[in-house]
Amino acid sequence: ALPEGLANLADFEASAQARVDAAAWAYLNGGAADELTLRANRTAWDAIQLQPRVLRDLSGGHTRVPLLGRELRHPLLLAPIAYQRLFHADGELATAHAAAAQEAGLILSAQASVDMEAVAAPMLADAAAGPLWFQLYWRDDRDFMRALLRRIEAASFEALVLTVDAPVHGARDRERRIGFKLPDDIRAVNLGGVKKPLDLQPGQSALFDGLMPRAATWREIDWLRSESKLPLLLKGVTHADDAREALARGVTGFIVSNHGGRALDTLPATAELLPPLRAALGSDIPLLVDGGIRRGTDVLKAMALGANAVLLGRPYVHALAASGALGVAHALRLLRDELEIAMALSGCKTLADAGPALLWPGNSPLK
Ligand code: FNR
């Protein structure tokens, strides 16, 4: 059942925390180092103000948006979040039922703790469900990657998202302080097989001699493009030159992200990163954004800054921990309702009406 008195996404946090052990909580909520980027994501959305228009005829308005050849009921997707069975026994399966019920998109983490076919089923069974995408981390084994791609395609995922901002773990102080370790019964079940152990000589760096030689480079982008016809989005590109290079190599679009402040600390907020990328790439390239989206007004601001859709991260996992599929569905419903209210009160009949003019110039990041 749902806890009493839930009015917004933040209201799920208290009951979630009561049900999640302290180490898993540190893993979920923590960011890298001083958590400056984690906090900046939130404060940047808060700092943007809206300049509403009134007396427009908004009858027949809606939240629908076009994305990768489909029309979505609304612009919300659930971000890839690893190991969701840490937070609820049904893990990613509950999340998928909720996404389908609320017509949201779902990006399944490479490190999901439930089989991808099981997660896909409720999304595929519901014609109104949003897009179903699979997030990849590069694994330095092409046979393994090829087999994984075939399985992702067979399971009817519609696009690949390669996360490029976390080739190694960020310096997550909260996790280290509490000694977070994955329990034995929660694993990345879709990544069977064993990772090769690092083979290091004395004096070599585990990071630069062990891990980085296995990380993706532009070569692997070319390989992915040649191995799968699915659209490929990169998650975590923040520099326009990297985005241009990716486009030249056949990448389809981008998720503007700083990994929820969990990878490199001191990156700008995503509300600051998005406008220059949109300006550099023009209006036709799919650009999604995540990090600190908590309110319908945040979604509207992201769209006004040029996003085609937005990803929701930690809050849906709070809802999952608090009340499983019902919680996640309720969280999505609350956010959808807030978005509709924000549109109606700001004079946007559709999200195509959310542009730079909607942002109060005094503190708009569109300089
Ligand atoms: C993540 N994120 C993430 N990203 C990714 O590409 N693959 C993954 O497996 C994970 N796993 C993961 C676990 C946890 C516990 C968190 C909190 C985040 C990052 C995620 O997709 C997204 O970028 C951020 O969470 C968005 O920021 P907010 O909404 O959490 O502020």
Automatic annotation (TrEMBL):
GO terms for molecular function: oxidoreductase activity. Residues 1-364 form the FMN hydroxy acid dehydrogenase domain. The keyword Lyase does not apply. It comes from Roseateles saccharophilus (Pseudomonas saccharophila). Its cofactor is FMN. Its EC number is 1.1.3.46. The lineage of its organism: Bacteria, Pseudomonadati, Pseudomonadota, Betaproteobacteria, Burkholderiales. This is 4-hydroxymandelate oxidase. Belongs to the FMN-dependent alpha-hydroxy acid dehydrogenase family. CDD domains: alpha_hydroxyacid_oxid_FMN (cd02809). It comes from the Bacteria. The keyword Flavoprotein applies. Keywords: Flavoprotein, FMN, Oxidoreductase. Pfam families: FMN_dh.
